[in-house]
Amino acid sequence: MKYLLLPLIFLSLVSCLDDNGSNEQPEPIDYTAQNDEDIQIYLEQNELTAVKTDTGLYYIINEQGDGAQPTSSSDVTVAYKGYFLNGSVFDQSSESGITFNLQQVIPGWTEGITYFNEGGSGMLLIPSHLGYGSFDYNGIPGGSVLIFDINLISVN
Prior knowledge:
The chain is of the alpha+beta class. The termini are far apart. The relative contact order is 0.21. 22% of the residues lie in helices and 26% in strands. The longest helix is centred in the first third of the chain and has 14 residues, at 2-15.
């Protein structure tokens, strides 16, 4: 019996390896240039003007707001709608929004929300390196540009 156990253990370990004989994760793909091109095309097609930051985030302020301006570690309440470049919605809050700390969200939100004051609204166009990266994540395909219509309800 113990002579059968050793080959079974070996077989189970080998079956966990990929075709190259390793169990390493695939290398991430750099979508930065493609995402930037896709965002610029989206802006042009929709006749939108956005500000591009050094990180590659694009944002549009429709209404600046006149309340407090959050920092990257603030607790905020935000109402939002998230969608892809093709307009397909992948997530949406209620009008009353959700409350979270800006350190607990994707980097595009941590940076982007800080450009608005309380009561402000606008749009964030987030390249994948500031979103969920190059791998699929909870129904969001790897390399996806994410667009969020946001309303910064409060800085808590």
